[in-house]
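Consider the following assembly input.
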Amino acid sequence: MTDSVRATHAPAQETAAATATATAPLISLEGIEVVYQIRKGFFRTGQVHALNDVSLEVAKGETVALVGESGSGKSTLGRVSLRLIAPARGRVVFDGQDITAAPEESLGWLRRRAQIVFQDPFSSLNPYFRVYDLIEEPLIIDGVPAEERRQRVYRALEAVDLVPAPRFASKYPTMMSGGQRQRVGIARALVRDPDYIVADEPVSMIDASSRVEILNLLRTIQTERGVSFLYITHDIASARTFADRIAVMYLGTIVEIGSAAQVIDRPLHPYTRALINAIPEPDPRNRFRHREVVPGEPPTSGAFPRGCPFFSRCPDRIPGLCDIDRPMLQEVEPGHFVACHRVTDNVASG
Amino acid sequence: MPVAKRDSAARSVLYSDGMTAPAPLLAVEDLHLHYVSGGRVVRAVDGVSFTIERRGEAVGIVGESGSGKTSLAVALMRLLPKNVVRFDGSIRLEGQDIRALSEDEFRREIRWRRIAMVFQGAMNVLNPVLKIGDQIAEPLQLDGRLSKQAIRSRVNELLVRVGLSPEFATRYPHELSGGQKQRVVLAMALVLDPDVLILDEPTSALDVSVQAQIMNLLKDLKQDPGISMIFITHDIGLASDLCDHIAVAYAGWHAEYGPAERVLLEPRHPYARLLLASLPRLRATTPPQPMPGEPPDLTNPPAGCRFHPRCPYRFAPCDTDVPPPIPIGDGGHARCWLNDPGVAGDLYLAHLKEPAGVSHD
Ligand SMILES: Nc1ncnc2c1ncn2[C@@H]1O[C@H](COP(=O)(O)OP(=O)(O)OP(=O)(O)O)[C@@H](O)[C@H]1O
Ligand SMILES: Nc1ncnc2c1ncn2[C@@H]1O[C@H](COP(=O)(O)OP(=O)(O)OP(=O)(O)O)[C@@H](O)[C@H]1O
Ligand SMILES: Nc1ncnc2c1ncn2[C@@H]1O[C@H](COP(=O)(O)OP(=O)(O)OP(=O)(O)O)[C@@H](O)[C@H]1O
Ligand code: SF4
Ligand code: SF4
Ligand SMILES: [Mg+2]
Ligand SMILES: [Mg+2]
Ligand SMILES: [Mg+2]
């Protein structure tokens, strides 16, 4: 990122610099703002502010998990990073190239180098295509010659452990289990040999016992091929296992980001703490105690609150400050950033 | 908040046939529910037994997709689809075998009045054009016994009980958040004051922080008014947040059943052990271990032990002989030959030597 960019996006200054990673980032998102136009009834239209000044970098070979409540903007941020959505404000840089406003026709190279794996392996695969055709399709678009296509399809199937590859290649998705279909979804992304994969809830439709297998598979792909991942999930425990860093989103902003251990073992934002307290680990003593909860639910829509996005639910809020001044991300220990006016108290209290 | 501890299950088994102890609130024994589909029999519930000793106890039914959890609920509520080809076993409610009742008796006396249910996804099928209060009141209005005024106060009382204010009675579903809708659905199930409430994945559509609020509410409802619950989930962590007993469903069986402490800390069935080991955990020191193999096909389950193709501990009898529910001293059971010293010999409980289950920090 250059100084001129920083100058033109003042609010992004601290955050963009703050979340920088040691190695050169593959993806760099700076001061991203997204507003959706929605219809409300026949004549009225409205706006959903989905992202408000979000900055995030993903290094080469790194996995960053995005966690947070439904509607907090995780998928939107993933789509911006793939330039499936152009942000209203901010900058999107992929491997040094500014793609913020690049026209779709000029993004052919990005469509090959960056891929997405969806949450639902059932609806995202055309049921009338054999597995072979499903995986081959993107290569036809890329103009890869037929013989090379065949080799690459089989290699992709082997990479996701659907072996013997020729046997799986001839199946239809309906003949496969949820876990196998999700492998097909991953093979389809891998076949183009991408540098970056957005995995949007890739295991949420799969049985708990098969999830680890898919996550381990993604981890292997990451280490063997040096692929960068944006792993979007509700499941903070899996983020711990699978991601290098975790970013916690609330109402269109990143409220905390750090290494997986920092965020889970030393959460400092009141929302992150609430999120972690809310997760029951299998422990028979759980039933004898109430879970600590924050009351209420995130507001669904409308404009961003002026101050802290968590103000309406925060047990630690400071009226007169938190509802007026928006807290910016601050680095509280190397690599660990928190956006909260109370952060110094929270650091002190552990 | 302490929850009444049940007596040792072994005692209740001894007493259950006698005259001296009261019958358990709900005792399900050797229950079967089979469907026929495309000319093949689906053994969705295939010999399942469990007991809820008294009011305010909860049993969790945990298992993968297709293991027969919803089918068990459907059998208990007797909401059978047309393609059911086998429905037998006993379901005793305070000693009375309600499975033997006629449909007419069951509808008049049991369904919704004594056993009620919150269906998978119920919050998404609230009637969009009916006010919340009217939706909750509907069974009372049909019943015709209460005055308009009494119905209104019952609805208000229920709304308050589930953590909403009485003003919600005049709202429409679209004005409610997900968590609020789930509270309304709970109020609807409680309207006829049932003894047993079946909850099928009641929080899976909710965010974790809202899910925790609902779980706290369910804990309260166990205490007051003392509702017993059958809590169906694929999330064993969630089951541990509510349940006194846990059944681990596998391919139409309950592979393991027993007190939550035993099932979570010292599971006796290899599947239960592997399931616990496969969960990513927030504070685990060891990484989660993938579960081997693929889930079974219920129209053609493996011979012998249904888990044998995936079981790392299988031995001589496993691929031919069906393991019965082998009792464990605490009133629970495990359908695994390793628990029978006569069959397992030197291998008796060999799987317990490897770490599994939940260790306390
Ligand atoms: N195409 C769209 N049109 C209008 N609003 C949208 C659109 N996509 C998302 N939104 C809104 O933008 C906000 C952020 O949505 P997004 O899908 O990014 O959240 P998310 O964190 O991925 O949620 P989930 O966990 O439910 O997938 C939400 O309020 C959502 O309703
Ligand atoms: N009406 C039906 N006719 C035929 N087969 C059925 C019917 N209902 C369910 N099944 C089958 O019975 C088995 C058990 O289904 P059930 O819905 O009870 O599972 P479940 O454990 O509730 O799964 P999930 O976690 O996906 O809800 C599955 O193989 C399912 O396909
Ligand atoms: N009458 C109401 N009672 C309870 N909650 C409400 C009511 N109206 C709205 N809400 C909740 O308040 C939040 C904001 O809703 P609000 O209606 O103000 O905005 P909106 O959803 O953008 O508008 P619209 O209803 O026109 O779509 C939502 O979570 C909604 O469920
Ligand atoms: S800034 Fe204030 S309202 Fe926001 S999380 Fe921190 S203490 Fe709570
Ligand atoms: S009976 Fe045999 S195959 Fe089945 S769980 Fe026990 S050891 Fe494994
Ligand atoms: Mg999403
Ligand atoms: Mg079900
Ligand atoms: Mg609304």
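The first strand of chain A starts at residue 25 and ends at 40. Ask yourself how this observation constrains the way the partners meet.
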